[in-house]
Amino acid sequence: MQDLVIEPASNGDIDSIDEIEQHSFKSPWSKSTFEGELLREWARIDVARMGTRLVGFCNYWLVTTELHILAIATHPDFRGQGVARAVLDHVLDVAKKTGCSLATLEVRRSNRPAIALYERAGFKTVHVRARYYQDDGEDALVMLRGLTE
User: Fold this and answer.
1) What is the dihedral of CA 145, 67, 94, 125, to 10 degrees?
2) What stretch of H or E contains 110?
3) Of 55, 77, 81, 101, which is least surrounded by CB within 10 A?
4) Phi, psi (rounded to 5 degrees) for 137
């Protein structure tokens, strides 16, 4: 991924983020949700670009000493090329540098590719939130990972 650049999102990225969101999630968030995230002091959206093309993103919160990953997704045309792993590694590094000691996320029980990504990055399932997702009642796995060496 030598030509992959990861940087903070801007309002100009919202349409591309929305396109990836629509392709990636069963119940995609609205553009206005992402616009709101750009305004929150604790919220971040980092995007991955190859050249001028936005190919992935991660929406996350930094709250005191905790990183909470809300969404990470790669455009379907670029899946399987390490984009999500590069973005995840970047976000974990940002969190460490800001003093976070714990990373947490929820993921659909059926999302095997995401679970595998998180497990490879050192996350462990610590809890199951039964019927967490409102659209279909699917369970969420709560995954945690320490960020200290």
Assistant:
1) 20
2) none
3) 77
4) 75, 15
pLDDT digits (tens, 9 = 90+) for 81-134: 999 999 999 999 999 999 999 999 999 999 999 999 999 999 999 999 998 887
Q: Quick one: DSSP state of residue 81?
A: S
C-beta separation of 129 from 109 below 8 A = no
CA distances from 70 to 46, 50, 51, 73, 103 (A): 12, 23, 26, 10, 11
* Token couple for 76: 């379907």
Domains and CATH numbers, the chain: 4-146 (3.40.630.30)
Would you name the residues annotated as active-site residues?
106, 118
